[in-house]
Amino acid sequence: MRLAVTGLLAGLLTLSGALWAAPDLAETFTSLKEAVEKKEVPKIKTLVPQTLKEADETLKEAQPSEAAAVENWKARQQFAKDAQSYVSYAYAVTASQSTDPAVTIEMAEALMALDPKADAVDTVASVYLAAMAKGGPAKAIAGANKILAGRPENEDALYAVASNGLTSAPGQAQ
């Protein structure tokens, strides 16, 4: 995941020439990136919806008719898409690095609510399921089912359903 993010960040830095055209998004994205690096969960929770809103607004911009302005528009569009992708990374990293099970659960579930099919869900699955398991087998199974709704091949979730199902209802295992 670190390599993918490094590539994403490199791409965002390459687009720095387009930042002047999307100053709100650029500022919010930079603030979100800093909050993730500093592990400032309250800021992340505030900046994610703001980043998504500003990226969405940028993506709704109509393509200009002047040929000279099209390249800048394309760069802004790509920057907005990359900022949206970074949000998944922000949730995944925050969930994975947190020592507070409540934060891990909240961030992982926010990621799954945003995009249940995101590859980043696989990244957080094991820590999310470990945090859910602290609430007992039923919680672990419920968490695994949330993962499986979008990522039916996730091995951590499949294992959690199987192992917790055997623990909580051994007579019903098939």
Written overview of the protein:
The protein is mostly helical. The two termini are 36 Å apart. α2 (23-38) runs parallel beside α4 (67-97), α6 runs antiparallel to α7 and α7 packs antiparallel against α8 (155-168). It is elongated. The protein is built from eight helices and no strands.
Strand content: under 5%
Estimated structural class: mainly alpha
Order of helices and strands: HHHHHHHH
What Rg do the Cα atoms give? 19 Å
Helical fraction equals over 70%
Uncertain stretches: 2-7, 10-21, 170-174
Average pLDDT rating: 86
Globally, the shape reads elongated
Q: Give the N-to-C terminal Cα separation.
A: 36 Å
Number of helices: 8
Q: Oligomer, anyone?
A: single chain
Largest sheet: none
Strand tally is: 0
Write the layout of secondary structure elements.
Elements: H1 2-14, H2 23-38, H3 41-59, H4 67-97, H5 101-114, H6 120-133, H7 137-150, H8 155-168
Characteristics:
174 residues, mainly alpha, 8 helices, disordered C terminus
Give a brief outline of the structure.
The protein is mainly alpha-helical. It has eight helices and no strands. The chain starts with a helix and ends in a 6-residue tail after the last helix.
